[in-house]
UniProtKB/TrEMBL annotation:
PANTHER family: COLLECTRIN
CC terms in the record's Gene Ontology section: extracellular exosome; plasma membrane
InterPro entries associated with the record: Collectrin, Collectrin_dom
Keyword annotations: Cell membrane, Glycoprotein, Membrane, Phosphoprotein, Signal, Transmembrane, Transmembrane helix
GO biological process, one term: positive regulation of amino acid transport
Extent of the signal sequence: none
Name of the protein this chain belongs to: TMM27 protein
Gene giving rise to this polypeptide: Tmem27
Main localisation: membrane
Localization (cell): Cell membrane
Length: 184
């Protein structure tokens, strides 16, 4: 990073800008900012003179306040940060951490709540559809019984015997032609 006359001019301009913005007067010029004891390590001290009385210096507290208020602009002009551009006797002004407008816990809570509500709604609608389907099947079965029609039941995908619901059904396993077994 080469510190030359152009960089000095930019620094003076930024300090003059800060003073103008702080005091709300347009009397501070670049020529009112004086750099003293400039070293190769870019270390120096500066004073700001009053333009109305070219001899009088502006109080240090006003200069400090102006620098503090516009420090981010000065850092940005030199592409530096508070860690790399240090003003002695002026505390660094770290920017506050960015906080979202909505707290994170509220967003997470909202997502979880929406998932729970969606699950409850799904279960309610699934139950209603299942009940409608059961009622429809039971009314169909009742209609067939009333008409006396023969129904074929299907269990596990295999059609069972044809049943005559009015006449009943005799289970052949228990109906023995011969009484081989002793009755109880």
């Amino acid at each position: 990073y080469a510190w030359d006359a152009n960089e000095e001019y930019l620094f003076k301009a930024m300090v003059a800008f800060a003073m103008r913005r702080y005091s709300r007067k347009s009397t501070t010029q670049i020529s009112n900012v004086l750099l003293c004891n400039v070293t190769d390590r870019v270390s120096f001290w500066f004073v700001v003179t009053d333009s109305s009385k070219n001899v009088t210096t502006v109080p240090g507290s006003e200069v400090e306040a102006a620098i503090r208020n516009n420090r981010n602009r000065i850092n940005s002009a030199f592409l530096l940060s508070d860690k790399t551009l240090q003003f002695l006797k002026i505390t660094s002004t770290l920017s506050p951490p960015v906080e979202p407008s909505t707290p994170v816990w509220l967003i997470v809570f909202g997502v979880v709540l929406c998932l729970i509500v969606a699950g409850i709604v799904f279960l309610v609608f699934a139950g209603i559809q299942q009940r409608k389907k059961k009622n429809k099947e039971s009314t169909e079965r009742e209609n067939l019984e009333e008409k006396g029609e023969v129904t074929v039941t299907v269990e596990n995908g295999i059609p069972c015997e044809v049943l005559d619901l009015k006449a009943g059904h005799i289970n052949g396993v228990f109906a023995a032609d011969d009484e081989r077994f002793t009755p109880l």
